[in-house]
Amino acid sequence: MTTALLSDVGAAAVSVRDVCQAAGVTAPTLYHHFGDKQGLLEAVAEQGFKRYLATKQGNGPSADPLDDLRAGWDRHVEFGLTHPAFYRLMYGPTGSRTHAAEQQGLQILHAMLVRLAKQGRLSMTPDEAVPVIHAACVGTTLMMLANPDSPAHRGLPDRVREAIFAAIITHQHSDDDPATTLSTQAGTLLATLAGQHDLDLSPGERLLLTELLSRWIR
Fold first, then answer.
1. One Pfam family of this protein, by short name (predicted)?
2. How far is CA 192 from CA 164, 170, 199, 213, in A?
């Protein structure tokens, strides 16, 4: 019910009265379950994130993490264009809290980037790359939703995807510049270090090593 109203009038224009009438409940009932209108919208956004997460969890890793990264980007854009009411609520200005399903989705993205880093194919740390990719993908999808019929938007998701990937993905060879090779090797070691918890390092030593490797990546 709420999703249909969101599609018709948008989150800002949806009223508690409209929702109650559509659902056949009283306002006190709605307030009892959700607290207020914002609580209701957050609950709908949570359902959106869960639906989106289901599209990601159904796809296991392939042999090439870069292929997985491309497929993940495409699934994100497709979900937004297919479920515009959910997507605007999930990533629009009305959201005020972080959702567990959203964080799980970002963890899946992080795991793909760790695989790339271990192969020496990432020009920054996975922690740095996650918000870069996420911001670009969300921004592109929201732009597509804002003006879906614009000729300038034809093929836009693919163009932005490849531009972002070109900025963060490296293709190293043995005769590459030594400084670039060092950066790649540092990224590989840093990604490997993040998954090793039984090394004989104190917290301070681990922090120092992480800081040094991060500097070399840059």
1. TetR_N
2. 24, 17, 11, 11
pLDDT in tens, the chain (218 residues): 455 555 544 555 566 666 666 566 666 776 766 667 667 777 777 888 888 888 887 777 899 999 999 999 999 999 999 988 888 888 877 655 678 888 999 999 999 999 998 888 888 889 999 999 999 999 999 999 998 888 888 899 999 999 999 999 986 543 455 445 666 666 667 666 666 666 777 777 777 777 777 776 65
- The stretches of 147-177 forming alpha helices (DSSP H) are 156-168
Give residue 197's identity as a one-letter amino acid code. Answer: H
Task: Extract the tokens encoding 155.
Answer: 């093929």
d(CA 140, CA 77): 8
CA proximity to 188, closest of 111, 112, 125, 108:
125
Q: Which residues contact 37 (CB under 8 A, 6 or more apart)?
A: 14, 15, 16, 19
Count Cα neighbours of 38 within 13 Å in the Cβ-side half-sphere: 5
DSSP 3-state of 171: coil
